[in-house]
Amino acid sequence: MADRTRKKEQEDTLTRERTEEPKKYKVLLLNDDYTSMEFVVWVLMNVFRHSQASATRVMLHIHNHGTGVAGIYSREVAETRVAQVKQVAKEAGHPLECTMEPE
Ligand code: TYC
Q: What is the whole-number distance in angstroms between the Cα of residue 63 and the centre of ligand 1?
């Protein structure tokens, strides 16, 4: 392939990557045997802005299935939410775990 053609292809690729939607990340809460249901509902309402009904639904899903999605965000916001959950869980003395993964 001519060098010129290869260069053009590379530019096209770079342009396409720049115009793609930024990746979104799922923030997951993990079940455990010690964190109270009330605290998980509080986290879902106060960190992830769920209504009481939605927070209760998500908490019960995590309790029954082991994990569940608290919210979907840009990388930066997801990182901030994970850090917030870890901080409030630590302060409250709960072992609640929170992670993120690409959508
Ligand atoms: N399994 C916990 C209990 O029975 C409740 C719980 C739900 C804990 C969701 C963590 O992410 C969680 N008290």
A: 5
